Amino acid sequence: MTSLNLLFVYNLVYEWLVELVSFSVVTAFMAKVVWTMLSLVFGTGLIWVLRQRALLKRAEAEALADAMRQIGTGSESETNHIWEKITGYLNSENPSDWKLAILEADTILDSLVQKMGYRGENLGERLKAVEPSDFETLNEAWEAHKVRNAIAHEAGYELTQREAKRVLKLFENVFKEFGYL
């Protein structure tokens, strides 16, 4: 019968533990290297994406400014004359003139939004396409356009002179934001 050599077993266990520990250390080190490399790659990618986004925002702002300059290509006196004509309708005693003022202001708004590059079959669709951060008076434009729709589509829509003045003030705020007035 052979005897069990304890020193041999002890050496086997010792060598197995050393390999296990050294493998764990190497594995942990490699994992750290891999994670560091991945972090660098993804961090660089994130920085690139954020920079491209900032460049795109700047390009959009420049395009919007160009569109606003193109809208204002008519002479300032011509623009003022058109707006004075529209606001002059409010001095009339005829409610039809008040409605006409709102309809004409809405036509200008539609032209403005089209020249800004927004697409759609009508002004409502184009306003839906507007990015709120690009159009501070978007809610005012919507409110004024809704009144225009009521005038155009609701038979017998009653419009007071006070309401007409309020709605034209909404249009005026929008036009001032974009340098039309």
Describe the structure.
With 181 residues, the protein is an all-alpha fold. It has 2 domains: 1-71; 75-177, no CATH class. The chain is built from 6 helices and no strands. It has helices at 6-71, 76-88, 95-115, 123-129, 138-153, 161-177. Helix 2 (76-88) packs antiparallel against helix 3 and helix 3 runs parallel beside helix 6 (161-177). It is rod-shaped.
List keywords for this structure.
single chain; 181 residues; mainly alpha; 2 domains; 6 helices; 77% helix; 0% strand; rod-shaped
Quick recap:
By secondary structure, the protein is mainly alpha-helical. Helices cover 77% and strands 0% of the residues.
What topology emerges from the helices and strands here?
Blueprint (H helix, E strand, L loop, with lengths): L5 H66 L4 H13 L6 H21 L7 H7 L8 H16 L7 H17 L4
Largest sheet: none
Strand content: under 5%
Order of helices and strands: HHHHHH
Please, what is the oligomeric state? single chain
How does the helix and strand content classify structurally?
Answer: mainly alpha
Shape: rod-shaped
Strand tally, please?
0
Counted by DSSP, the helix tally is: 6
Radius of gyration (CA) equals 35 Å
Mean pLDDT metric: 83
Estimate the helix proportion, in percent. over 70%
Distance between the termini: 110 Å
Number of folding domains? 2
Which runs of at least 5 residues are low in confidence (pLDDT < 50)?
none
